[in-house]
Amino acid sequence: MNTRRDFLQKIGASALMLQLSSITAFSNTPGQIEQPYQGKVLRVAIMGLGGYGTRVAEAMKACTKAKLVGVISGTPSKIKDWQAKYNLPEKNCYNYENFDQVKDNPDIDAIYVITPNALHHNQVIRVAKAGKHAICEKPMALNAKEGQEMIAACKKANVKLLVGYRMHFEPQTLEVIRMRNAGDFGKIMFFQGQCGFKTGDPNQWRLNKALAGGGSMMDIGIYAINGARYMVGEEPIWVTAQETKTDPIKFKEGVDETIQFQLGFPSGAVASLLSSYNINHLDRFFMSGDNGFAELQPSTGYGPITGRTHKGELTQPITTHQTVQMDEMATIIFENKQPVVPVNGEEGLKDLKIIDAVYQAVKTGKKVTLTA
Ligand code: NAD
Questions:
Q1: Measured between alpha carbons, how far is 80 from 194 in angstroms, rounded to an integer?
Q2: Which domains does the chain have, with CATH numbers?
Q3: What number of H helices and E strands is found in the chain?
Q4: Closest residue (by CA) to atom 35 of ligand 1?
Q5: Residue 168 in contact with residue 337, Cβ under 8 Å?
Q6: Residue 256: is its pLDDT beyond 70?
Q7: Which ligand 1 atom is at minimum distance from the Cα of 300?
Q8: Judging by beta carbons within 10 Å of its beta carbon (0-12, 13-18, 19+), is residue 371 exposed, middle or buried?
Q9: Among 49, 58, 99, 137, which residue has the most ligand 1 atoms within 8 Å of its CB, making it the best to mutate?
């Protein structure tokens, strides 16, 4: 059986990727002497020391502009393990009850929230109130209303809110976007995004509506939505959606198993998308324009991302997504850098509005119009 990890992790590439990820740390121009980074380092505490938190922490070892300096966890034994592993001082370690005290800690700049989806809203707002920058995993929240409240809280506290959209820094993906902007594909007519795998443990929080906010759509359908937006380069104006449920015991009320959905864009381009917790080997983007095409497969897993266009294979460097993401986020936070595809709260909100519309379309069977 494919697991979530199989979906995201393509074996054997991590060591190579860690080495290649250091291209962000040094000048890569031929003939130039490599200079180690001497600028400001983003000091990050991770909240939620589960599967993805662990992956981010490991990837951050190779960062030059960001550093793991603390943790927030409800499990004291995990805190001890992480302290030993990452050399974290006691004063930078918190639990879910006392982490508001981080406001008095000048040695932490940002908190990366990597907990179950339903907790993001409240936790990010608490981070903002503590005066720290918030990095939040996808989906940023359970719905657009929550997302708007998080954006408002961060604005009020004058801190940045960023979403862990690691694909926005992935080189093959960025090359397709560059080619689209250069007009290489001509007028974009069609995008197809397929994201799915057979999920395992029926007792996991991802199949619990209260903690996940839904099912596959909240977890991986969001990649198809986000991908449709950054590949086509437009914001959709309508949504239609159809749900299929073959196992109502495992996928209870409000927890979607498989949703096929469609987006329409102002230019007339359309997207056909699939999100599933019950179909294996779905990790593919395809885009067609009047003059060419692009295909990424895998398209959103941990890598390596591979792809081709009508001009040939994509040959951009392979990176460790989370290493590059965290280095880039340091620059976004400290230098106000504008990435090619945004990773701010407004970007997270756009996906949440579409998720709201998908669920509404499933419920009503009707086409839902999206407004900006
Ligand atoms: P996980 O189950 O492996 O870890 C979740 C962590 O949250 C655990 O350490 C758990 O102890 C902690 N936690 C705190 N309060 C909890 C509660 N009330 N109930 C359950 N757990 C609680 O999950 P994960 O895979 O690390 O996912 C965490 C977040 O990261 C999710 O929002 C997920 O969508 C996101 N994620 C993103 C990516 C990506 O590629 N960007 C990949 C995986 C997960």
A1: 40
A2: 4-166 (3.40.50.720), 169-315+345-369 (3.30.360.10)
A3: 12, 15
A4: 137
A5: no
A6: yes
A7: 40
A8: exposed
A9: 137
Query: If you take atom 15 of ligand 1, which residue's CA is the nearest one?
Result: 115
pTM of the model: 0.94
Per-residue pLDDT tens digits for 56-72: 999 999 999 999 999 99
Tell me if residue 138 is catalytic: yes
The string of DSSP letters for 175-218 reads HHHHHHHTTTT-SEEEEEEEEE-----TTSGGG-HHHHSSSHII
Give distance in angstroms: CA of 117 to centre of ligand 1: 7
Asked if 223 is an active-site residue, the reply is yes
DSSP code per residue over 265-277: -TTS-EEEEEEES
Q: Please give the radius of gyration of the chain, using alpha carbons only, rounded to the nearest integer.
A: 20
Closest by alpha carbon to 328, among 34, 64, 125? 64
Q: Residue 243, Cα to own-chain centre: how many angstroms?
A: 24
Other CB atoms within a 10 A radius of the CB of residue 143 amount to: 16
**Residue 85: its pLDDT value, please?**
98
Helical H runs in 233-292? none
pLDDT at 18: 38
